[in-house]
Amino acid sequence: MPETILVALGGNALITPGQPPSIEGQREVLRHALGGVVDLIARGYRVVLTHGNGPQVGHILLRSEAGRQEEAYDLPLDVCVAQSQGETGYLIAQVLEEILRRRAMAERPVVAVMTRTVVERTDPQMQTPTKPIGPFYTREQARELKTRGWRLVEAGPRGWRRVVPSPVPVRVLESASIRRLVESGAIVVAVGGGGIPVGLSAEGRWTGIEAVVDKDLASTLLAIDLLATTILNLTDVDHAKLHFGSPNERDLDRVTTMEARRYLAEGHFAPGSMGPKIQAAIDFLGQGGQAVVVTRPERVVAGFDGLTGTQLRESFEEAAALKNDAICSGTP
């Protein structure tokens, strides 16, 4: 049975720094980002893609705010997440099909699944927004936006960003359907933006919740359900870092789960940014996953092969033994 790999694309990794966001700009970034993913598909691996939506859902909200002057209807946050799933899932599927055709692999179907993620309405995170969405703002812009009731935080040297509630995901409603698609040979795009956050109503119906689910935590739930062996977390940095933004900043290369827990407890990874990626890696490895890699999209193959990026394992001695077994069996 071919191994399943989950590739998690960060929303910020789909935007070219310093360039105005656009649909064609995202397509161009995806053309560079997904070439390596197709290389892994060509090796015989089953691949599921998830994606973030921080910048995209932020722009949807901005358009909704601007549209109020034209009497456009308001969009609740769960509907904004659904819109971003449709937009980004469509672009990923389009570009993947383009590359597959070029590589004489056009017979492989690409399916984007509208995905809902269950969260608890009573989650404490609903009262303490931490998830950054939308573009970066200057200090002056942030000051003006706070007068609208937005919550903003300083997000490093690039400026300020809006933050919204990000409750912990409990399960992915469409997991079983996604699993059947993967087993059929489809390349699946799912859990966009962490999934549309839903909870049970008093009448027992799934209804939307005004929040954004962390894509990395939700992706881990899906990876565990699919018995994936590896998560490739593709973001806008080469490595996770210690002492980020300080003169003592340094890249992390090989990290065990024990070390990752310690670094997380010491506060090295920001909430709503690298923190959930590391927590998700710890969760995945603790549930039987073999490897998690954090790196840039253009380095996905080198990252998968252990040549770059932050490599996270339960233990590296065990990882070496698993790799030797795979080499001996001759199967991915």
Overview of the structural elements:
The structure is a single chain. By secondary structure, the protein is α/β, with parallel strands linked by helices. It has one domain: Acetylglutamate kinase-like (Carbamate kinase). Helix content is 39%, strand content 21%. It is built from ten helices and 17 strands. The protein has helices at residues 23-42, 54-67, 77-102, 139-146, 175-183, 215-225, 257-265, 274-286, 300-304, 316-329, and strands spanning 4-9, 46-51, 110-112, 116-119, 131-137, 152-154, 160-164, 169-172, 187-189, 196-200, 206-208, 230-234, 241-242, 250-251, 254-256, 291-295, 310-313. It has an eight-stranded mixed β-sheet with strand order 3-9-2-1-12-16-17-15, with helices on both faces. Strand 10 and strand 11 form a beta hairpin. Helix 1 crosses helix 3 (77-102), helix 2 crosses helix 3 and helix 6 (215-225) runs parallel beside helix 8 (274-286). The longest helix is centred in the first third of the chain and has 26 residues, at 77-102.
